[in-house]
Give the backbone structure.
Amino acid sequence: MAQTIKDKAGDSLNVITVPTRQQARAHLMDRDLVGAFVPAPSHPELMTARAGSNAAANATETIFRMVTDQQGVSLKVTDVAPLAKGDPGGGGLFFILIALSIASYIGALTLAPAAGMLSMRVRAALGLGVSLAISAIAIFLAGPVFDVVDHSYGTIWAMCLLYSAGVVTIGLGLQTFLKQLTPLALMGLFVMLNLTSAGGLTGPELQNTFYGTLHSFWNGAAFVEGTRSTLYFDHVGLGSHLLTLWLWLAAGVVLTLLAARAERKRRPRPHPGPEALQASAAEELAAGGWAD
């Protein structure tokens, strides 16, 4: 059966076999598989993990229902990683990402007009305050208000803060170098490329090669997969997702430091006033004496 499905699907599917149902379930919880079919003469079973990707679970169910329909038997579907009650469609974490992205993007642009009045150090401190406020509001809405997050509030809040701070610091740094082009750059980085590759509604296994590759290292994907790992998959792969968020934040910090240095170099040096010139001339005369 596995070979027949593989032959018909070609490169669209990777099909493997494992000896037991328990091993198949373990692969699902480790996120190595998106579905596992357990053959039986009269009551075959399909195990899925909808918390990993609702779209992938639906695609898997469609494939194996075709198999059982040809066999003339009913298919039992078991979800080994059900979604939270407040997120039946599986898009809640993705909508949190959208809110974080837009709020952080706007927060960075709001601080841009202060570039001529406030130093980068002050603007970075204000940016950290903005990220703290955004992440606090995000976890409040995701948790008590909408029940998308029903446990591990501290971990999810920390990921919200890391993500938001990364966006804000990158925005502050780019503003110094790109000026009016900063909104376009931020939109490209954190809307067009970010949201499309995040895997919030369509997992990387259903994306094309370009966005599937971005999914492996983009900060939005790290946030979505990190929160999924925390909420549904016993922290599998959480370390790598946190590392990605930290690296994006580190890139933002380096960019703001470079921007601060560039701003110091561009800052015009103050010209001495008449009093300073007179004092300097008097010092020179006192040092050299009078010349006949």
In short: Residues 238-266 form the longest helix (29 residues). The first strand starts at residue 35 and ends at 38. The chain has a mean pLDDT of 90.
